[in-house]
Amino acid sequence: MKKIIIGLFLLLGFHQVNGQVIVGPDSSEVPEEIFEEEEEGEEESNEYDSIVYSASDHYWDFIRPRDFRFDTTFAPARSFYMGWDTITINPYKVDLKAMADTIKLVLSDYDDCSFHPPAIGDVTSNFGFRRWGRRQKFHFGTDIRMEVGDPVYAAFEGVVRIAKRSADYGYVVLIRHNNGLETLYAHFSQLLCYPGQPVKGGNIIGLAGSTGRSTGPHLHFEVRFQGEKIDPAALIHFPSGSLLADTFLVDKGCFKHLYEVQSAKLKAQKAKKLPKYVKAKKGDTLVKIAKRYGVSAKKLSKLNGIKTTSKLKTGRNIRMR
Q1: Is the pTM here over 0.85, yes or no?
Q2: Contact between residue 37 and residue 73 where contact means Cβ atoms under 8 Å apart
Q3: Is the distance from CB of 102 to CB of 203 less than 8 angstroms?
Q4: CA 230, CA 180: separation in Å to the nearest integer?
Q5: Could you tell me if residue 220 is inside a domain?
């Protein structure tokens, strides 16, 4: 009789590990992944690992029924968003750098926009350029130091749009909120929510971890509008865990960093096309070579240990990058 019961659980797609129920997604319901720029690796994995939900009494409501289907007519912020995609993090592909309008969003009121800080901890990395190995890369969120297993909270009321595993974000959750924003939470050790689940500000949506491209346990938190990232510190005062204001104005100024990112990418592409070494011609100086290739003479001077105005011996190898 015991073997028959175990067999039935396997047929239903459930098994337990250390008291947790693991739900394996139905592969027939998982469409092909659409790649999208991510936090650091600039790509999204098409792997769709089993999602772990807690089976404790406190979190029992987070387990998704196998026959659950979210009615997209109840998707929040329908005036700002046309579709409801549970796979692609940014399916909108809207360019907001030159948006003409200013949109006022209500972040907190007495009805359905209560706020809760996404995590309790010190900020370890802010929104903006930072060193990643030997390169400067743009960090599109705020990192908060946490311990594995610490709770992570929904920032506002809304509906979970994505809860899955990604190559770079690890276990990741994205919530679309009633106020028009979307927030993203990355590197969970365990998910405690599912796509289509309504949440309120302060509901626990997962446990902190270090999955994906991560150097240690922390929460990577993003704020988005129509797919484009906004500096979370423009809305939230992280030291106190409170909103800066009850409303927020979205305009083109929120996305001026995208010009910096675009410029940095163009420079990186240009640098890749440079030869590693060139041979000096008769009468060459570093200044002449720099002008010829559109690079900095000071940089060439540092790379080669030569003054910018020094005449170079014909045929000498000059390092360019």
Answers
A1: no
A2: no
A3: no
A4: 13
A5: yes
Q: How far apart are CA 136 and CA 303, in angstroms?
A: 19
The reply to whether 247 and 303 lie within a common domain is no
Are the beta carbons of 125 and 146 closer than 8 angstroms?
A: no
Per the domain annotation, does 25 fall within a domain?
no
Q: Tens digit of pLDDT for each residue in 169-228?
A: 999 999 999 999 999 999 999 999 999 999 999 999 999 999 999 989 999 999 999 999
Number of domains in the chain: 2
The answer to whether residue 290 is domain-embedded is yes
Q: Which range marks the domain in which residue 176 is found?
A: 69-262
Tokens 């006022």 identify what position? 104
**CB–CB of 91/229 below 8 Å?**
no
Q: What angle do CA 188, 190, 191 make, to 5 degrees?
A: 90
Band of the pLDDT at 271, cuts 50, 70, 90?
A: low
Say if 56 falls within a structural domain: no
Locate 63 and state its tokens: 């387990």
